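Could you help me review a protein record that somebody else here produced? This is what I was given.
***
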Amino acid sequence: MIAWTNYYRPHRFADLQLTSVREQMLQLQAGVNFPQVMLFAGPKGTGKTSTARILAATLNTPANKALIQQCYLHPSGQKPATGLADPELDQPGIMDILQGNSYAVVEIDAASHRGIDDVRALQEQVYVPPPLSQVLVYILDEVHMFTAEAFNALLKVLEEPPAYAFFILATTELHKIPATVVSRCLVVNYRRASEDELVANFERILTEQKLTADARALRQIASLADGSFRDGVKLLQNVAQSGEISVAQVEKLLVGGLDQQIETLVTITLNKDEQALVDYFANLRALNLDESFFLKTLLTFLYDQLIANIKKTGPTKLNYKQTEFLLKKLIRVTPNTIVPYLELELTLLEIFSQAKKK
């Protein structure tokens, strides 16, 4: 089954769900005024990568070739008579750009390519003109993970990029970006989506899917998404697969049984029972429960336990040291697209193994 989070990505700036970001990007599009270096800052799942891909598709769409030449590649100094057209989805390569399958877009995970050698390799790559597109768009995701040396090397590229190169620096932690880097960027601020924005996005998808839903159920899913379009769509698809989008199904699939699942996992962890843990995750995969939502719920449970221990507001399943330890170990666990829950399972098995050696 096709993941709705990929299938229903926006294809033009007018489709962006965050009002402030949509208006800012449409204004830049109308004036052919996109700077070559931009910084997209805000929570995960709010559209930063989608916006960057739309930019790449817009700059490379054939209808805009003359304007890109006039304004960027061979600037004439004349004010453009018209704005840039939307991406032409029927033209070769444009959908590939929007889907992240094009050489016109280079997406770099700064969390795993964070050193000065990685930036030096990028510098060498940047000065090779694109063979198959007008411009190249580099997306540096989680750029706050760069080392200080890497940021210093990056500055040299950002100060005078080649005419055909555009840089999108994306981060969830703007405060960690050096001021010298921020000063060279146009900052686009993303925020958590409101319930109304999430529900509007759900309704658009359901209309295309020819599905109906209880309005209260959509509100409930939106509240569980915690401001993330991506997480919200994942949860919506999870419920839709059951054949009924109702409050009862949301309670059953996303709320009701999850508390018990978390309690069971905590008990297994306290007992350091490796066999029970393996069986637990096998069962969890069979339930097809969204991993991002599960991880968020687990971390929320652990945080609530931590606060309850500090404030001494009542009995807790975990003491302060246990809760603090697990939070530090699990906070960086991320969903796995190949084997769901793999990183969480391996992390807990490693904790069990280390505990038994003591």
The radius of gyration is 23 Å.
